[in-house]
Design a protein that fits this description.
Number of strands of chain A: 13
Largest sheet of chain A: 5 strands, mixed
Order of helices and strands of chain A: HHEEEEEEEEEEHHEEHEH
Radius of gyration of chain A: 29 Å
CATH superfamily of chain B: Cytochrome c oxidase-like, subunit I domain
Helix content of chain A: 25-40%
Oligomer: heterodimer
Strand content of chain A: 15-25%
Shape of chain A: elongated
CATH architecture of chain B: Up-down Bundle
CATH superfamily of the largest domain in chain A: Cupredoxins -  blue copper proteins
Strand order of the largest sheet of chain A: 3-2-1-5-8
CATH topology of the largest domain in chain A: Immunoglobulin-like
Shape of chain B: globular
Mean pLDDT of chain B: 92
Low-confidence stretches of chain A: none
Low-confidence stretches of chain B: 1-6
Number of helices of chain B: 16
Radius of gyration of chain B: 23 Å
Number of domains of chain B: 1
Helix content of chain B: 55-70%
Number of helices of chain A: 6
CATH class of the largest domain in chain A: Mainly Beta
Number of domains of chain A: 3
Structural class of chain B: mainly alpha
Mean pLDDT of chain A: 88
Structural class of chain A: alpha+beta
Distance between the termini of chain B: 25 Å
Largest interface: A-B, 77 and 91 residues
CATH architecture of the largest domain in chain A: Sandwich
Distance between the termini of chain A: 32 Å
Chain lengths: ~300, ~550
């Protein structure tokens, strides 16, 4: 759990470690003493039991020491929490709208998304609004959570410190599909964010691969939906304008290249070629009408990963 | 402890009268205790079954054996049944009813008929709540906390469930009132407050919380019903209400309710440990004071359930501080129980094993509470499996284990029969291992960010869910073995002496099971409670 994905995570984890160290020490101590006493004074060992009624000094000691320790825990927890309530002035304000059972994010320039894109190292203030019932906005990796209360303007903020994709989960029971009210925060480099924010591409184009490096089928799926592939290609086997993607990867396809029929295996290369140069190889039985999409190499790699992921 | 005749009476036992009517119309506190025991164990087993099905669903990702609607109903009903029908009445209703009058040397509670009424209210509340399963448009799916505005909008049968809980609340208030009066008016001669055993003391502290806090829940739930029926605009923000107000009102009762659940459990542990250590309790006064302290401070910490709800910053800091303070009396009790083993003569019978496991598990429950009290960590773990793990350690590892400890401890007295000690220990070991595998895994899952009340889970939580489900199987095997052992014991013909464990409180001076009137002659008390090894004064 100690990722440090946001500037707040470290502060939470520090308090966590402090309290964990003290409580584990206490638990081990009290358990050890208990087991020792049970063995040392077990019946039949010959010792005669004595009625010891108490010991005032001991009572004071074991009231006083926990009191002091508990107060340090309280204080440490409080001071680190205050960081979360003081939003930096230069924070970008994103309006988070929760409804049963989806999240939507509105940026200052009016851009709307269903997943949150933020720049690495830039503070983001989230103004939380609910259209129906209570929801909870939670990014575990950032250690950030706030209830989304209808009629109330709650807020929270974070500053992402790691590139990558992080889960957003709803934490307040909100109905049948509560557990599917999920989204993602995508932390991307500042220049990629700016290019996306001021550009007209729906999905940010990444100049460098994320920390994972490997093609990401989940991102591929988003591109599939956002870039309109979904209009002509199905993922359930049904035939639309274009061939279905279900079972596509690794299958034998017959294509028309320069008027000739060629049968080849649908591998990484073939799919990437078809996306980059749609009219070059057209699957037999389909019209050559697929437009060329504005996709980066990473986008294509992720799309291929998504197609591979399909059954 | 008493100067009354030590020989058990030859009066017939309180089971002597036969027939259904003799049970349903009884005003004998012991019979009412048995009625509560039977009904609550039934509810417990049903609630446990709901839990098992939830764990089965979580064994795999995606829909497996049920739909989300069913799952949401299951965790709601599991919560409602376990909380309102098992742990809240808990030790108070069963062992309090049975033993409180005997332990203070009384023939019955102050208002025996009111006592029977409270059982009937409890049962009708249970019946009404459970009828929500079969009436209207399906069982409630809000979680046991009935948070608005979802509980106002959902089409499921929330009104019925809430009305049932409303009725159960009255049962709780009446029992509390009855116990307070009983302790003030019916203590036998010589039993002043500071000679009263610790179980009655714990019931006394609990009863005040029941009387003072439960009406708030009653009114709040009534308002939810009215809001659902007439759209008053108290809680629903779309017509001018305030959902945070509901949370304050709900937790103003429901946090003190946590102490209604745990205080009698602590009282039972304070009885069991001296008996099996065969020496007096260490720090009697400290334990009494800490019970009252928990009841008082515990009533002032409710809003720590709401740190992320958007309360004022001042409220957040004050409630965090008070939360840390309420941990102190609990710590004092743990120290005193452990110190009671010192220079004792410790016998590890099954009630004692459950009691020692209680200390260990309750400590984990209390210590994990400290994490939540700390504001910075609370933001992370609130509404996750960490909370679920924490309160199962307190409510089940604490109250549940204490309930089982008390059941094994007082079983020979209540029934005049005996269970198999060996089977009891096997069951204990299974429950203990399964429990920790199940709920410790919950703590870990929560830290990883697994939210509570989720029908489905993300792949990264999958391993944890598998372990937890395996834990649930081990625990349930232990629980079933325990119940079978206790039921079988009822049919084993044996004669149980008045005092099988060598206890010194008054219930061990009457025969097993006790006669209808408890005592032939009311005992007169001349010593502090828990005098096991009286010091024989030697002439100077």
């Amino acid at each position: 759990m100690f990722g440090g994905a946001s500037s707040f995570s470290g502060k939470v984890d520090a308090v966590f470690l402090y309290i964990a160290a003290l409580t584990i020490a206490f638990l081990v101590f009290i358990t050890f003493v208990m087991i020792y006493l049970v063995i040392r004074y077990r019946r039949g060992k010959g010792g005669k039991a004595q009625d010891i009624h108490g010991h005032l000094l001991l009572e004071l000691v074991w009231t006083g020491i926990p009191l002091v320790l508990f107060l340090t825990m309280f204080y440490y927890g409080w001071t680190n929490y205050r960081y979360l309530r003081e939003v930096p002035r230069d924070a970008m304000v994103v309006q988070v709208t929760a409804r049963q059972w989806a999240w939507s994010f509105t940026y200052p320039n009016g851009r709307q998304t269903s997943e949150l894109y933020v720049a690495l190292g830039r503070p983001v203030r989230l103004d939380l609004k609910s259209l129906d019932v209570l929801h909870g906005f939670y990014v575990p990796a950032f250690r950030v959570k706030a209830d989304v209360v209808p009629g109330k303007n709650n807020y929270t903020w974070f500053q992402a410190e790691q590139l990558g994709d992080f889960d957003i989960e709803c934490t307040v029971m909100c109905g049948v599909n509560h557990s599917y009210m999920l989204s993602k925060v995508h932390v991307i480099a500042e220049q990629d964010f700016s290019a996306w924010y001021f550009g007209d591409s729906d999905v940010p184009v990444l100049s460098q691969a994320g920390p994972a490096g490997a093609p990401d089928p989940a991102r591929g799926e988003r591109i599939f939906k956002l870039k309109g592939c979904v209009a002509c290609h199905s993922t359930d086997g049904s035939k639309l304008v274009g061939p279905t993607w279900k079972g596509l990867f690794g299958s034998q396809v017959t294509v028309l290249t320069d008027g000739k029929e060629v049968t080849l295996t649908a591998d990484d290369d073939y799919i990437a070629r078809s996306i980059h140069h749609p009219p070059k190889e057209v699957v037999k039985g389909f019209a050559p009408q697929m437009p060329k999409a504005d996709l980066s190499d990473r986008d294509v790699a992720d799309l291929v990963a998504y197609i591979k992921f399909l059954p | 402890m008493s100067t009354a005749a030590e020989s058990p009476t030859s009066e017939p036992s309180f089971y002597e009268r036969k027939g259904i009517a003799s049970w349903l119309l009884t005003t004998d506190h012991k019979r009412i205790g048995i009625l509560y025991l039977g009904s609550m164990m039934t509810f417990f087993l049903v609630g446990m079954t709901f839990g098992v099905f939830m764990r089965l669903e979580q064994l795999t990702m995606g829909p497996t054996i049920m739909k989300p609607t069913t799952y949401n109903a299951l965790f709601t009903l599991h919560g409602v049944m376990m909380i309102f029908l098992f742990v809240i009445p808990g030790l108070s209703a069963v062992f309090g009813n049975f033993f409180l009058p005997i332990m203070i040397g009384a023939k019955d509670v102050a208002f025996p008929r009111l006592n029977l009424l409270s059982w009937y209210l409890f049962m009708s509340g249970a019946a009404v709540s459970l009828s929500s399963l079969f009436t209207g448009s399906g069982p409630p799916d809000t979680g046991w906390s009935f948070y608005v505005p979802y509980s106002l909008r959902t089409r499921t049968n929330v009104t019925m469930a809430v009305f049932g809980v409303f009725l159960i609340g009255f049962s709780s208030i009446i029992t509390g009132l009855n116990f307070i009066t009983t302790m003030h008016r019916l203590r036998t001669k010589g039993m002043n407050w500071m000679r009263m055993p610790l179980f009655p003391w714990a019931l006394y502290a609990t009863a005040w919380v029941q009387v003072l806090a439960t009406p708030i829940l009653g009114i709040t739930l009534l308002l939810v019903m009215l809001e659902r029926l007439f759209h008053l605009g108290i809680f629903d923000p779309s017509i001018g209400g305030d959902p945070i107000l509901y949370q304050h009102l709900f937790w103003t009762y429901s946090h003190p309710a946590v102490y209604i659940m745990i205080l009698p459990a602590m009282g039972a542990i304070s009885e069991i440990i001296p008996t099996f250590a065969h020496r007096t309790i260490f720090g009697y006064k400290a334990i009494v004071l800490s019970s009252m302290g928990i009841a008082a401070i515990g009533s002032l910490v409710w809003a720590h359930h709401m740190f992320t709800s958007g309360m004022s910053e001042v409220a957040i800091v004050v409630f965090s501080l008070l939360t840390f303070l309420v941990a102190i009396p609990s710590a004092i009790k743990v120290f005193n129980w452990v110190a009671t083993l010192y220079k004792g003569s410790v016998e590890l019978r099954s009630p004692m094993l459950f009691a020692l496991a209680f200390i260990f598990l309750f400590s984990i429950g209390g210590l994990t509470g400290l994490f939540q009290g700390a504001l910075a960590i609370n933001v992370h773990i609130h509404d996750t499996y960490f909370i679920v793990g924490h309160f199962h350690y307190v409510m089940f590892g604490g109250t549940g284990f204490a309930f089982f400890a008390a059941l094994h401890y007082w079983y020979p007295k209540m029934f005049g029969r005996m269970y198999s000690e060996r089977t009891a220990i096997v069951a204990f070991v299974l429950i203990f291992i399964g429990f920790n595998l199940l709920y410790f895994t919950f703590l870990v899952l929560g830290l990883q960010g697994m939210p509570r009340r989720y029908y489905d889970h993300l792949p990264r939580f999958h391993t944890g869910h598998i372990w937890a489900t395996i834990g649930s199987w081990i625990m349930v095997a232990g629980l079933l073995l325990m119940v079978i052992n206790l039921v079988r014991g009822l049919f084993r013909k044996t004669t149980i002496p008045a005092n099988p464990w060598g206890g010194v409180t008054l219930e061990w001076t009457v025969s097993s099971p006790p006669p209808t009137e408890n005592f032939d002659v009311l005992p007169v008390i001349s010593e502090p409670a828990y005098t096991f090894n009286p010091v024989t004064k030697e002439p100077a």
